[in-house]
Write a structure and sequence with these properties.
Length: 279
């Protein structure tokens, strides 16, 4: 199966239109959502290395994201909350974070921090952003700060679901009756998965609950443990999105799927208007 894309991050940023709707998969859980004149960035990891993890592929130029209107932080784990990456965006960037986490961000010098808990709604321009439940561990490290792990439902001319890190949970069926796009994590950063994550089969099963028009696999192909690239890094970096698409075709054939390579973007108008078929 071929990975399809529309344009690079750099090209997309240079041709931004106020009413365009684009999804850019930056890598891991970092996604740039451009919708109704607003730019929202999720869980930014913009460096070549985070703790013992390295980025696979080309580095990300942080200058691409200088016009981001809001940053969503789903939880406090190091591969989702990377303070050096946030500093590249500026200390005055608007950060929407789990309830109870603001003091951690303030200690790192960030001034515009908005806390939300599950069920609360805030706005970014004309977009409504609702914090949702995520079935995932809540502490930054074993003895660190504990906050709720969140997903986010972003509603405007399209409705987009970013789950953060989560396992499948039955209440997904109640999140929305009009979901256009589900950005579904299908793996992690290593050869195996711990609890609170979805593999490709689990992610495909969520489609029966979420009922989106379009599903885009994320959380794959970008980060891997330091030194693993000296050997064969393993097919866990490349196989999960394709396995997800195969399971989705069997379990939820009515849902369109689209794989975006890290660093690439798609136009929602193009994909959702049916001009591109299932991958």
């Amino acid at each position: 199966m071929k990975i399809q894309s529309v344009t690079s991050v750099e090209t997309l940023a240079g041709n931004f239109m106020a009413n365009a709707a684009h999804i850019t998969y930056v890598g891991h859980a970092t996604v740039l959502i451009e919708l109704d004149g607003q730019c929202i960035l999720t869980d930014p990891v913009l460096r070549d290395q985070v703790t013992f993890l390295r980025r696979r592929g080309l580095p990300i130029d942080p200058a691409v994201f200088q016009d981001v209107d809001a940053v969503l932080i789903s939880h406090l784990h190091y591969d989702h909350l990377d303070f050096p990456s946030l500093r590249l965006l500026g200390h005055d960037r608007r950060l929407i974070v789990p309830r109870g986490a603001a003091r951690l961000f303030h200690r790192h010098g960030f001034r515009w921090v908005e806390e939300v808990r599950i069920g609360e709604v805030t706005s970014v321009g004309e977009l409504a952003v609702r914090a949702t439940y995520a079935d995932h561990s809540e502490s930054r490290h074993p003895f660190g700060l504990r906050t709720q792990a969140l997903g986010f439902l972003i509603a405007g001319s399209y409705e987009v679901y970013f789950p953060g890190d989560t396992d499948l949970f039955p209440e997904m069926a109640d999140l929305s009756n009009s979901l256009d796009v589900a950005l579904l994590p299908v793996w992690g950063w290593g050869p195996t998965l711990g609890p609170g994550h979805m593999d490709p089969l689990q992610a495909a099963k969520t489609l029966r609950l979420l009922r989106p028009r379009l599903a885009i696999p994320i959380h794959w192909g970008s980060l891997h443990p330091w030194g693993l690239d000296w050997f064969n890094p393993g097919r866990f970096l490349t196989d999960p999105p394709h396995t997800f698409v195969r399971h989705a075709a069997h379990l939820a054939p009515e849902v369109k799927t689209h794989i975006i390579a890290p660093g690439q973007a798609v136009s929602l108008e193009v994909v959702l208007n049916g001009k591109e078929g299932r991958l």
